[in-house]
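User: I'm curious whether this sequence folds into something compact or stays loose and floppy. Could you predict its structure so I can see for myself?
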Amino acid sequence: MRGRCKKHHGCKGWDGHTLRDAPRGCRVRIQGFSCCPKDRCRLLALGLTPGVTAEIGPSGCLRVRDADIVLGDDLASTITVQALTEDARA
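Assistant: Here's the prediction. I'll summarize afterward.
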């Protein structure tokens, strides 16, 4: 997870497609995974399911379902996400 979200929320202008590319402070929706079945099972057990929203905190940890999760860059690069705007928060 890199950089800082210029708008702090909404992440307009961010064209990344993986969790690793998402700037800090950005809210994202998990879309899917491109990792091995073993890693996918672990991510699902942590609550990272397709459709769930998450926020990248200032320290780079992922806030999802009232829990803070820290992922390595290799694993974060296998998670496809969509940036959420202020209006799309839910």
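Summary: The two ends are 22 Å apart (CA to CA). The mean pLDDT is 79.
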